[in-house]
Amino acid sequence: MACQHVSACPTLRSSWRVALDAACRVSQPWKGSRLSYSGFAPMEPGHQDRLKDDSILAEQTLHTPVMLKEVLRCLDIQPGQVVLDMTFGGGGHTKAILRASPEVTVVALDRDPTAFSLAQQLAKEYSGRVHPLLGRFSELGALLSRLRLQSCSVDAVLLDAGCSSMQMDCPKRGFSLSKDGPLDMRMDADRYPDMPCAADVVNALDQQALASILTAYGEERHARKIASAMVEARSIYPITRTQQLASVVAGSFAASALYARKDRLQRPSHVATKTFQALRMFVNDELNELHAGLCTAQTVLKPGGRLCVLTFHSLEDRLVKRFLHGEDVGAPPRRSVRQRVQRWEEEEEEEEKGGEKDSGHWVDLQRGVLMPQAEDVLENPRGRSAKLRAAFKQ
Ligand SMILES: C[S@@+](CC[C@H](N)C(=O)[O-])C[C@H]1O[C@@H](n2cnc3c(N)ncnc32)[C@H](O)[C@@H]1O
């Protein structure tokens, strides 16, 4: 696995190190040229990964689907329709879709081999109604053509971005700041042995590149201080564990600042939370992937077909909003970071005041974003920062 490169060879393979360094210098996170791992991660045709460790499945607490009522309402599934769930995860949304209407067929994609195994199990329960696919959004076009699913043939698409609880809760996957495990964070697990994991990134990139990642993907105000702490720590010993990284980040703050930040529920959040988010997004190329997923949804949906997108932080939501409103998400920034943040805030205010937008490709199904209700957040606090956007294709 890629993580092992770090302890075996602290300098890492130069090919992707150069690519990662170059990636950090570009300023548009979702621009195709910025973060493409296609060079390191060729897709193997017909690749059918089996779970190497079936015990992972047994120990899963499955994911509680976020904003389920709202998602079902927006998708408005009718009998006999074809639905594409681009983020199967634990299958919570897919199961509800299957139950919502008889004869509905679900094409269930996930890049995570564990989720794919769960989808295969569900396919046995719902014979002929679930078609599991293993791969990334950026590979979906090719996977769908193997299923002989043509453009404009899908009735509804769901994209529930980010990580599942199964990924977060399994220490071996290395996503969690509170559970010690190898600093991995690859949603694809071991499918692409050359794909860098979080430990590779933390131990190989220079300080400036690390700070750029923390700023771009974590919107971390203390990026330079944290990057400097990482570089200092790894000069003594490589950073290979999640809790080791959490301690390194914590060590760059005063003790009183450790839990001074608050989440959206006003609960104290650890100072390393944004660092973990940034690394995860970088390792999995999440914004480019999200953009690729939205483009594929636009291609496969029928006119009148519905798209529902759940996102969990502002970078993702802004990308979805701009896409649905027909803005060029790859255009180079014309303003400073401060001006862009100010403009985003103004746009959010305008949106809250109302007004559906028509981009030429999409029509919003509701005014602005939907957020989870207070009682749903109490039941499922992980969904607290969810934002749901829904639109139909013109
Ligand atoms: C929030 S979970 C989905 C949970 C699911 N809706 C449920 O109810 O169980 C997100 C899932 O999307 C998958 N995922 C994230 N990015 C992806 C990508 N680019 N391509 C394919 N799957 C992706 C993750 O592996 C994860 O399993």
General description of the model:
Helix 5 links the parallel strand 1 and strand 2. With 394 residues, this protein is α/β, with parallel strands linked by helices.
Write out key terms for the chains shown:
394 residues, alpha/beta, 7-stranded mixed β-sheet, 12% strand, disordered N terminus, binds S-adenosylmethionine
Order of helices and strands: HHHHEHEHEHEHHHHHEEHHEHHEHE
| Rough outline | globular
Could you tell me the strand content as a percent range?
5-15%
Q: Tell how many strands the DSSP assignment holds.
A: 9
Q: What's the tally of helices?
A: 17
Q: How many strands, what sense, and barrel or not for the largest sheet? A: 7 strands, mixed
Helix content: 40-55%
Radius of gyration: 20 Å
Structural class: alpha/beta
Bound molecules: S-adenosylmethionine
| N-end to C-end Cα span | 45 Å
Q: Taking all residues together, what is the mean pLDDT?
A: 83
Low-confidence runs (pLDDT<50, min 5 residues)? 1-15, 21-60
Strand order of the largest sheet: 3-2-1-4-7-9-8
What does the secondary structure layout of this molecule look like, with pairings?
Elements: H1 4-8, H2 14-25, H3 55-58, H4 68-75, E1 82-85, H5 92-100, E2 105-110, H6 113-125, E3 130-134, H7 140-146, E4 154-160, H8 165-169, H9 198-204, H10 207-218, H11 223-234, H12 242-251, E5 261-262, E6 268-269, H13 273-283, H14 286-300, E7 301-311, H15 314-324, H16 337-353, E8 362-364, H17 374-379, E9 387-393
Parallel strand pairs: 1-2, 1-4, 2-3, 4-7
Antiparallel strand pairs: 5-6, 7-9, 8-9
Bound molecules: S-adenosylmethionine.
